[in-house]
Each structure stands twice: as C-alpha cells, then as structure tokens.
C-alpha cells in the first residue's frame, strides 16, 4: 500500500473534517501518500483528486461540514459509473480508499470492493442510524445543537405557559429525538421505532397540567409525522396554547463537539490501519469505546435500533 485517497459523501456531518485530517495525518505517519477526492463519488468519477499534505488539513479540526465537499451521485449507482471511478483511482496509482458517509455511501463502497478496489468506510451522519456502531460522527454535535435550541424554547415556554412541539431530524431513526429529549426532560418523545398513541400523549399532557406543570415540550422525530399536525391535534384536544418549531438544517451544521472530534480522529486513524492491514469491505465502528472493523454486510444485517431502555427512562423521569 503506497497511496490512499479519502472522500466524503451523502449528507454532511460535523466532524467529517476532523476525520479527513486524521486519515491524512495518520496516513503520512505510516509513510503513505494521501489524496483527497472532491464531492464524493461525483468527483471520483470525474477524477477530481488532489494530493493532501499535513498542512492541507491544518485549521479544519474545529470546522463543521466538509472541506472536500459532499454530493449525491446518481451516475455512481450504475456499474459503468463505478468502473469509471476505479479507472480514475488506478490512473492516480491509488490503492486504497476511505469513504466517510452514511449507509448509501457504504453500499457504493461495497461496489468498489466488488470491482477489486479495497475500500473502508467511516460512519459520518448526524442521525446515528448505522447499525453495528454505537455512535456515528456528527451525532453528538447534532444533539447538542438540539438541546441548546430546546433550552431557549423552554425559557419562553415557561414564561408564557405554553406547550411546545419541536420537530427534529430522523426519518427512520429516533436517536436524535430520544437523546435530546432525555437530555432536556421533554414531556413526550415521539420516535419512529415506538408506535405512538396520540391519546396517551394527550392524557399525559393533561395529567401534567393538572398537577401544576406550566409548560411542556414534545419532541417529534420527523419520521413520525409533521410537528405542525401534531401541534394542531394537541391544541384541538387540550385547548392549551401550542407552538411548533421545526429545527431543520441547523442540526446538520456547527462546530463539532469534543466528543465528535475525538471519535472522528480515532476512526480516521483506524480506517488507515485497516487498509494497511490489508482489510477491505469494512466499516470502522465503535463499540464499548473500542474501535473495530466490521464487514459492511454485518453492519447492514440488522436494522438500527435505539436503546429502548432510554425511552422508558425518559418516560419515568418526565412524569
Ligand atoms: P448517505 O451516505 O448519507 O446515506 P446517500 O444515500 O445519498 O447518502 O448515498 C451517497 C451516494 O452513495 C449516492 O449519491 C450514490 O452515489 C452512492 N450510493 C448510494 N446507494 C448506492 C448503491 N446501492 N450502490 C452504489 N452506490 C450507491
């Protein structure tokens, strides 16, 4: 192994820059030449590839987003596109690739490995929805952004005795809603993995009101339904003054937290070590604070599941 490349693909996440930096610097430490690919698989197909030295990744560890840019690339879904990508890599005499992204990115990585090109994945997505790893890069920053927003909403909620519905990201995974709801003492947390009964939530709200609660926060993962509709239902059934906030893309941006920077640094270095060890078709994962490489297939085998004991705990603590 002499030359490796790194790219970021799919939805961006805070901490991706720290992961790129770790791939570049640990690669150089192990006497490899490291290249950066711009705009994910799109740049790979076009051969938009540039050498990165130690200095090229200076002053980025604390920045959100990804300086290599990210993109979605329909052309790469076809085998012709995948072959073009491998041709470009070979043209640059690159013999190993690290891809940072979510499950779509990893499915693309598997195709590269099928074509004989060793590829290792690093999970970077705010949703924490990749099975096989306890955490993904960007999740901690996202939940910190959410709780900061909810803290502010709570101030105004308690001043005005209102019920607030806050819609957060998570089409298929409830981790953002669950973790930030627990961290912020939300009265109810609605996540796609647990079937949700409106009547129960309304009853809970009324119970809280009867025992003197002045305000309530309901956290909704977008996969469950529109916050606006849920807010309307609550207003109809309770008569409580209800406001809805949709946090949207603010959750994707911002400076990565210390935890995300550390995770990204460790995962970046681990990806390089796996390539050096001759591994391919693997994703870097963290389990019980240990970094491991697991087969992509194994990662996709099961669905991602949030920790439902946390869901129960949130229910107990918010009575
Ligand atoms: P994420 O990695 O965040 O899940 P996407 O699902 O958009 O983001 O995937 C990023 C890119 O990975 C896609 O634009 C496409 O180029 C590639 N990709 C996704 N799914 C596949 C697949 N099944 N086969 C090959 N490439 C894929």
Automatic annotation (TrEMBL):
Activity regulation information from UniProt: Allosterically activated by ADP and other diphosphonucleosides, and allosterically inhibited by phosphoenolpyruvate.
Location of the active site: 127 (proton acceptor)
Keyword Kinase: yes
Pathway: Carbohydrate degradation; glycolysis; D-glyceraldehyde 3-phosphate and glycerone phosphate from D-glucose: step 3/4
One example GO MF annotation: monosaccharide binding
Subcellular location: Cytoplasm
Binding-site list for Mg(2+): 103
Keyword DNA damage: no
Binding residue positions for substrate: 125-127, 162, 169-171, 222, 243, 249-252
Residues in Phosphofructokinase domain copies: 3-275
GO biological process: canonical glycolysis; fructose 1,6-bisphosphate metabolic process; fructose 6-phosphate metabolic process
Annotated keywords: Allosteric enzyme, ATP-binding, Cytoplasm, Glycolysis, Kinase, Magnesium, Metal-binding, Nucleotide-binding, Transferase
Positions bound to ATP: 11, 72-73, 102-105
EC primary class: transferase
EC number of this enzyme: 2.7.1.11
UniProt xrefs under Pfam families: PFK (PF00365)
GO CC terms: 6-phosphofructokinase complex
Required co-factors: Mg(2+)
Family of the protein in this entry: Belongs to the phosphofructokinase type A (PFKA) family. ATP-dependent PFK group I subfamily. Prokaryotic clade 'B1' sub-subfamily.
Function: Catalyzes the phosphorylation of D-fructose 6-phosphate to fructose 1,6-bisphosphate by ATP, the first committing step of glycolysis.
Complexes and interactors: Homotetramer.
NCBIfam families: PFKA_ATP, PRK03202.1
Record protein name field: ATP-dependent 6-phosphofructokinase
Phylogenetic placement of the source organism: Bacteria, Bacillati, Bacillota, Bacilli, Bacillales
Gene this chain is encoded by: pfkA
């Amino acid at each position: 192994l002499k030359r490796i490349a790194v790219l970021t693909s799919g939805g961006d996440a805070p901490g991706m820059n720290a992961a790129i930096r770790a791939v570049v610097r640990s690669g150089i430490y192990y006497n490899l030449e490291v290249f950066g690919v711009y705009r994910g698989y799109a740049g790979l197909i076009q051969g938009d590839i540039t050498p990165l030295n130690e200095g090229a990744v200076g002053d980025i560890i604390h920045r959100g987003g990804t300086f290599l840019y990210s993109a979605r690339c329909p052309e790469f879904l076809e085998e012709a596109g995948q072959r073009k990508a491998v041709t470009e890599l070979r043209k640059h005499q690159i013999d190993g690739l690290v891809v940072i992204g979510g499950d779509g990115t990893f499915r693309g990585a598997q195709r590269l490995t099928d074509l004989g090109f060793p590829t290792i994945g690093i999970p970077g997505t705010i949703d924490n929805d990749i099975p096989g790893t306890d955490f993904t890069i960007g999740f901690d920053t996202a939940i910190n952004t959410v709780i900061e927003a909810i803290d502010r909403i709570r101030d105004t909620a308690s001043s005005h005795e209102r019920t607030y519905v806050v819609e957060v990201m998570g089409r298929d995974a409830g981790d953002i809603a669950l973790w930030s709801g627990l961290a912020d003492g939300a009265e109810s947390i609605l996540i796609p993995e647990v079937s949700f009964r409106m009547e129960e939530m309304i009853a809970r709200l009324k119970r809280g009101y009867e025992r003197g609660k002045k305000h309530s926060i309901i956290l909704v993962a977008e996969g469950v339904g529109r916050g606006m509709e849920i807010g309307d239902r609550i207003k109809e059934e309770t008569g409580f003054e209800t406001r809805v906030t949709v946090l949207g893309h603010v959750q994707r941006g911002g400076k990565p937290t210390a935890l995300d920077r550390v995770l990204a640094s460790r995962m970046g270095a681990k990806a390089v070590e796996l390539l050096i060890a001759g591994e391919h078709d693997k994703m870097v994962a963290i389990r019980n604070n240990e970094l491991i490489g697991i087969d992509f297939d194994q990662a996709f085998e099961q669905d991602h599941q949030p920790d439902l004991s946390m869901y129960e705990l949130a229910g107990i603590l918010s009575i």
